[in-house]
Design brief:
Helix content: 10-25%
Order of helices and strands: HEEEEHEEHHEEE
Oligomer: single chain
Radius of gyration: 19 Å
Largest sheet: 9 strands, antiparallel
Amino acid sequence: MKINPKFYNNLNLCLDKIINLMASAVKDRKSPFHTPLLSTVDNRNKPNSRTVVLRQFFHKKWVILIHSDIRSKKITEIKKNKNICIVFYDEQEKIQLRLSGQARIEKNYNNAWEKLSTWSRRCYLSNLKPGSNSNIYHSGFNKKYSKIAPSFEDSEKGKENFCCILCKIDRIEWLYLSSIGHRRAEFKIKREQNDKIKISKQWIIP
């Protein structure tokens, strides 16, 4: 007989599990939660999704940080419509999260640029705008840095193309898959004065 985890029938433990999975995924590149799916709304009012990297998770504020090239389409879309959805799924844990909220763009939140290695910074040194058409295959990297990292001085040139996407989460939908019965729940995050957070919890039908 299958033994379900402690959080199976406990909303508080479900929330603890969410925090643990997301917090550990920031540094664990092998975690499926390290690369969630970010959805924005395009100028035709249609969803537009792409895989991103979870860079930071401020669980006390329920804010997620993602890096981006400021020239990318998702930045344009967020500036026009700040509503976003982020989906996480871990096949081994059998857990899916759907987070909805609002995003804002900041150039260098929490010194994010300074924390990048020169190898990572090369992504922002391209003269080509992300999503640009090309007659040949292209990595987007400056040819000079296709196999080597730029010097620190050269890497600093990429800062003008770098930005952060801060996603303020206001709703989490939790789904745990189990052969003896799935569990689904909703967590609503309410922000009060003095940045106090209140979270309401509710079971919902899978």
